[in-house]
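User: I'm designing a mutation panel for beta-mannosidase and want to avoid disrupting the core. Could you give me a predicted structure to guide residue selection? Please restate the sequence first so the numbering is unambiguous.

Assistant: Good idea. Sequence first, for numbering, then the predicted structure tokens:
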Amino acid sequence: MTTRIPLTEGWTVEGRGRRVPAAVLAAGAVPATVPGTVHTDLLAAGLIDDPYVDDNELRQAWIGGADWTYRCRPVWRHDGSDRQELAFDGLDTVAAVVLNGTTVGATRNMHRRYRFDVTGLLREGGNDLVVAFSSPVREADAASQALGQRPHANHHPYNAIRKMACGFGWDWGPDTATSGIWRPARIETWAGARIREARVVATVVDAVPAVSVGVEIDRSTEVPLVARVRVRGREASAVIPADATSAVLRLDVPGADLWWPRGHGSPTTHELTVELSTGGRLLDRGTHRIGFRTVEVHTEPDGDGVGFELRVNGGRVLVRGANWIPDDAFPHRVTPGRYAHRLDHAEFAGVNLLRVWGGGIHESDDFYDECDRRGILVWQDFLLACAAYAEEEPLWSEVEAESREAVIRLARHPSLAILNGNNENLWGRQDWGWGAVLDGRSWGARYYYELFPAIVAELAPHVAYLPGSPYSPEPGDPQNDPATATTHLWDVWNEKDYPRYRDHRPRFVAEFGWQGPPTWTTLTEAVSDDPLTPESPGMIAHQKAVRGHDKLTAGLVAHLPLPSDMGDWHWAMSLNQAVAVRTGIEWFRSLTPLCTGSIVWQLNDCWPVTSWAAVDGAGRAKPLLFALRQAHAERLLTIQPDDGRLVLALVNDTADPWAAEVIVERLTFAGELRARQVARPAVGARTGHRVVLDDAVAVAESRGHELIRARSGDTTAHWFFAEYRDCGLEPAALTVTATRSAAGWTVDVTAGALVRDLTLLIDRVDPSASVDDGLVTLLPGQSTRFTVIGAVDATLADFRAPAVLRSANDLVANRRRA
């Protein structure tokens, strides 16, 4: 059996080069963590301040311009093996690996795993191991010149080097171009043979669950070997002749339960065992959890353009998705527990698909294991984003190698539904003015239309492939046409206003979003400005979008007054983000089945920042998360203006028909009935239905003092005829009681007057506490209950505090009184 000796202890790191400050040079070699990075090691050593606080990130740019050397002295005792190897699961990025004075390898790709044969180089006892990293900033600049300059987002030529693109900064992320051994390292020894890789394809063939396993081996013996796979008590085996290094084993598993996505069935997985033996002696074994399912993407032309439909096990999936970025600017810090916590948030928000964006990483098996277990589908981009990419060497071979490796590793996960060629590069090639800069140079087309589809067809034929996002099936057509396949809708945030989402009738929205600040606790932990204002230095350092602050303001004032108090500003921008995204999702879903889904930008953040995320960089839920939960309801009622009329849209994302009785009422803000309509639509499974509202309900007598309420059982929708700032909202007259529970509190709130978007900002009571609801609209006399986990030392006064219990009324009525 393979012996693995982790290389986690005894490392040091030391900087080299003229950019390294004198204090860091004087400190010499400092203790290093593996997995880890230079930034986190310097932080642990007290040589830099936290890069997430204030403008420290800007003052630490020298780190990416320096060279760094990691050293350790592993002890090895000869164990009878005939092969010894150094294995690195991730080296970031340009590095030379030296063992006992001999260079055993060189790397240029953060996204690859490396294995170096050191047989005969390891010494009995102590060994000198050095990993010398070159400056990623200088290497990227040099590679860009060597390949020929090509267009890219942001300020570093990240497209010339195979390093996480957002590591060089993004419009939501810090520029922390770092170096380090960012994934585990070890010595591996073996004798005879070992399993190098197992290529797993689990699917359903002719209604029978089936798995194919391509076994690749390394060997030092010239005897026949036996490969064997087992699932649910069934097995298949094959002899690998003495002169061969591979075998393909196929196994039918009749009766095995299928894996289903959230809301469609149980995400059942099964243990797959792969063994390698000779003469009855076991040489190597691996185990994996697999799931049997089929995935298809259909893009057929119709009278409205070209549709986009994801089908799993033959059934339509209406996507309620969110985009996912690296959860930390230093991804080695993301633990299995942290993944689980973030995916708890995804489930809370009703998300059934996460898109792993192409400027980050091929996500870890910990992430995919969680998605497998929860039934959350994954759309994984290949790692090319917002840039033109050279198709020449040496970049081509690096992209091919990393992509093959990633597909082999991820293909066993049943949650992996889509592999996507790139993020926005097809669109960028057409509409972002690249032509003059490229001047005939390659830009990446051969990756998207030749290399990647060939890799997926070979290694993961059970996974759907798209050439890019956004995309249209015909390469010569406009690649970001909302009427054709997938679209990214950024015109609304960048140029317009959120009601303008309704200008589009998209078939599938793969990106759209609206900015908001992190929670108050996260913001004030990271920004120490005094006074803290929307435009104070730390706030600007933690706003990475071009003209982001201006867009926040422009997107607010049509709906809510611009506050002068910082606490009110924070709440207003948080509320506006939530309402904007809720508006978009409910509009897209109201078009079901014309539109089959949306993927909001974005679920998570990698540091404390004003951004499009629903969960901030400290893992705290923003009000947007409650908006997602509401807009992603399996059975949704929403009232929408369309073609000059108001329509009641019903969406049924369940397997059962919905025989709904909907009571639609026009009410005054005091709760007085003005008109009523009863609708009894029959809504089929996984589809939508629309009802045009009668004028008696749809036309207000006093726009600023009336609303429409639609109810069907526990499902409710509201429509207001006027913007918040033009509504006759009075100060929130709230009666609040709080009762201790075993885990925290139940907080009951009763409205004395109409209150809109009532939200308990629980982090202001206890930074570690959570609450189960938000953005609640109540008519006079109605009540709601908030369930709080944590905040055990709180008092009733804490929950009643004006900075904690917020509503839109605060921003409108209080401004009117002022």
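For picking mutation sites, this is relevant: Residues 97 and 761 are 50 Å apart (CA to CA). The radius of gyration is 28 Å.
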